[in-house]
Amino acid sequence: MTSRRALHFVLKIGNRKASVDFFKNVLGMEVLRHEEFEEGCKASCNGPYDGRWSKSMIGYGSEDNHFVVELTYNYGIGSYALGNDFQGITIKGKEIAARAAEVEGHIQSAAGITVRDSGGYPFHILSEDKEGDPVVKVTLSVSDIQRSHDYWVTLLGMKCYSRTDTSLLLGYADTQAKLELVKVDGEVDHAKAFGRIAFSCDRSELAELERVMKVKGHKILTPLVSLDTPGKSTVEVVILSDPALEADKSDEWYSKKGKSKDTA
C-alpha cells in the first residue's frame, strides 16, 4: 500500500475571501490553484448542488507531497450548518502558533491553541518546530471504533499507529498526514457542512477496490468516474463511506438535486 497517500480534505465555505484570508494570514498557507465551474461536479465535489461553484486548493507546498485543503464555494450560499463530524486539522509550527494566539476567541490549552475560521471549522496548532509538511492529522468523529478499524485497516490497508477504546490513529506512511478517528456518544451528525478526505492510489487498484467494497456490502457514494481537471491530468475517482460515519444518513444529500441554495 506504499503507493497510497493522503491528499486533501474538502471544506465547504460560505465566505471565500474571509476563508482565504484565514488560511493565508493565520495558518500561513498559500493558494496552489483555483478553478471555477458553471455546473455541479459529477462526483458531487461541491456537495448536492447543481449551480456555479469554485474550488481553491490551499496548503504549505505542492499537492504532490503535501496534505492540502480544498475550499469549496457554492455561489449563493453564505454559510453551512456544522455537525459534530469534523473535529479539526492539527498543524505544527511555532510561527503559526504565534499568529493563532492573536486570533480573537482562540482557546489555549496544554495541548496547543485552537482557532476557528469564519465558517467555524476548528484548527489545532502545536507550537513545535516543523519538519516537512506542517499538517499532522485530520480528526473525524465515528460511532464505532471496531467497525472503523475493520474498514480502514482491514479493507483499505491503512497502518494503525495507535488505538484506544475511543480513538484510532491511521496512515499510509510515517511521513504523511494521519487520519485520527475519535468515538463520539450517539450518532455522527454531518449536518450540511459535511466534508470528505481524499487519498490517492494506483489507477489499476480503483476498480478492484470498488468491487471489494460492493462484495462486503459497503456503500459506494460515487462509483468509479473520470473527472477532468483544468491544467492537470484526468483523474479517476471512487467515493466510499465509512459505515461508522454514516449514522445520520447525510450521504442521501448526494442523490438529491434541485434543493434551494439558501437552505444550507
UniProtKB/TrEMBL annotation:
Alphabetical keyword list: Repeat
InterPro entries per record: GLOD4, GLOD4_C, Glyas_Bleomycin-R_OHBP_Dase, Glyas_Fos-R_dOase_dom, VOC_core
Keyword Transcription found: no
UniProt entry tagged with the keyword Manganese: no
Domain (VOC) ranges: 5-140, 134-259
Pfam families according to UniProt: GLOD4_C (PF21701), Glyoxalase (PF00903)
Family statement: Belongs to the glyoxalase I family.
Name of the protein: GLOD4
Organism of derivation: Bugula neritina (Brown bryozoan)
